[in-house]
Amino acid sequence: MRSTLSTPPVWAERCLQAWLPNDSMRDAIMGDLHEELVRDTHNDGRLVARRRYRQRVAGVLAYALLDTLRWRTWGSTPADVPRVQMVGTRAVASTRARPRTADAWIVLAAFAVLGVGIVANTLIFSTVRTPAAGVSVSPALGVVSIALALGSALAAAVLLCVGPRWLRQRSCHRMTQQPH
Amino acid sequence: MGHKGFLGEFEQTVMLSVLQLGERAYAPEIAQHLETSIHRAVSRGALYSCLNQLERKGLVSWRLDEPIEERGGHARRFYQVTGSGVHALRVAREGQLILWRGLEGILGGTT
User: Fold this and answer.
1) Cβ contacts (< 8 Å) between B56 and chain A: which residues?
2) CA-CA distance, B107 to A29, in Å (whole number)?
3) Which of B46, B53, B85 is nearest to A73 (CA)?
4) Positive or negative torsion for Cα A180, A20, B30, B76
């Protein structure tokens, strides 16, 4: 009978599922953290075990984010490869190397989106501050300007966070479809 | 050999722990082994990041075990050091021994 006392918090598992790529590494990490939670609950009690679990999840997510910023992708195998012993072969390395160039394009696209937002915001702001003679400027334009700035910043952030992962999953998916 | 050929200190530590543990080398065991043997607390994030990097460099490989109920239905990943990894460790040890030589008077103990 599975004890609910040593069940990982749902929010933590969802964070791991959302951030880590969907492959055997994520599966192993979630299993390892769960196993340690069970062991710590048995040895040190529920409160201490859950505190340690939260700290470990935070540490994993922090390092995963740091590695993403350094273009070091987590997860090394295609999602569907079952129980295959993988080593760092050239074929796997070259497939993993391919998303790096695309990652650079994603970063450029993110900066472009941000740049468009900044330029548009500046134009609107300058129009609001120095309206042409006889032309009344609606206060809503200021709201639009702020929304545009926030929207472009959010879009750039989403591109940076989700883009590389999406590319990785796409290249993993292509790898599983290639005949061996 | 350029900087990419050298192992970092933490990489060496993890690889040595993997060799020590043999068939039982998976992440929680590696962390516990380091904590009990050399009293070094290891962040799980740092450990997974290191193992990921070692695997990308071809210095470790891994195999999956069967999923088990106690782990929420998730499988274990057992690591082993590859031939390239053993060679890298030998090179690192030789470098360390060369640098440690003649320093017994300052550092004490034997090398």
Assistant:
1) 72, 76, 88, 93, 96
2) 40
3) B53
4) negative
> Do residues B71 and B87 lie in contact, with contact meaning Cβ atoms separated by under 8 Å?
no
Q: Return all residues near B87 (Cβ < 8 A) that are at least 6 apart.
A: none
Q: What is the pLDDT along chain A (180 residues), one digit of tens a residue?
A: 444 567 888 888 888 888 888 788 899 999 999 999 999 999 999 999 999 999 999 999 989 888 877 777 776 544 334 333 333 333 344 444 444 556 667 777 777 888 888 887 777 767 666 655 555 666 777 777 778 878 887 787 777 766 766 666 666 555 555 444
Which residues of A7-96 form beta strands (DSSP E)?
Answer: none
Beta strands (DSSP E) in A15-164 are none
Q: Which residues of B touch A (CB under 8 A)?
A: 26-28, 43-46, 48-49, 52-53, 55-59, 61-64, 67, 69-77, 82, 84
How many Å apart are CA B80 and CA B61, to the nearest integer? 5
pTM of the predicted model over 0.95: no
Query: How far is A177 from A175, CA to CA, in rounded Å?
Result: 5
